[in-house]
Amino acid sequence: MTSKETPLELFKRALVQTTRALSAQDEVDVTFGGDRAVVTDKSVRLPNPIKELSQEVATLARAHGDAAALRLAHHDEFLHRKNQPQNGDGQQVFAALEDARIFALGTNALKGLGDNLSALLEKECIDKGYARMEDRQDVPVADIAALVARERMTGRPIPEAAKKLVAEWRTEIEGKAGKSLDALADAAALEDQDLFAKLARQIINDLDLGDDDGEDGDEADNDENEEDQDEPDQNDDDDQDDENDDGNESEDDNVPEHGEQNDGQMDVGEMLDDLDSNLDDSANDDMESMFYGPDDDTGLNDTYRSFTTQFDETAPAEELCDPEELTRLRRLLDQQLESLHSVVSRLANKLQRKLLAQQNRAWSFDLDEGVLDAA
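Above: the chain sequence. Below: its structure as tokens.
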């Protein structure tokens, strides 16, 4: 510790070195920022610890670093995407079980690391409001399945904040997938991500959350993809000219962006078509004409009037939901939308191309000046 190094800086430096050591990877880049840990390739971003380092704050900070390091050391993203189910509910359970496997490996190997992860899990359950939930349907089944699996794999108890909800789900989950959950405790299954993925798929099928074709769904999808690739060669000759006229835009739509995956949640083509129609100028004009007069851009059209305001009631937002409940609902919504991230990314790229296509550019190549209107 240098004379100018504060205790917080010393703690962060030690946390960086510990994260790199636990990851068992060369040249891991560890930075601080945001409010959650993010792991990409060999880069880790950890939440910034607050200046006043209490025991609780230090434990949670170490837990974030431990979790990120374990993911680098024991998780293969290619295998994960290869083995995951195609439906959204199945993917959530599969991802939750994989996280439980990763953390179980560290918990079983190092007691102190396990204590850190247990503290982090307890805080997450409190933040999600599990202790206040009355209806078990309010919590995703993926979270409950992961907690039950963690109990099997590590022997550690369910977090106090989640005990009530787990008790309500336990009979149903163990009745359907008890044998499969017991198989997760095998050390060989924990070390082998591919083998563990098969057990996780079995649990998902036992819970009736798997794909329609069961474990053979991936093979069936591959066969269908091969057939789909053969059919265009025979039947799409007439459409070749139209595809060429579309330029590179259609090719860009079919190429996933960085970080995307084919979730199979919905027809992305239909969503892109809907976006095209929404961005169409004529559609916007028709929508505006419903509320605004043809020559009035500031007031509502005379054809629209409220019938009465006698029964209107105004409720401030802060009275509808307290901050803790709002945070819990926000986290719950984020969990439900995880499977739609690739669709949102693709729609965002489509919108960006639409906006860029409206830029006005002009250039005289025999001069050293030009015009670029990026408005």
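The longest strand covers residues 29-32.
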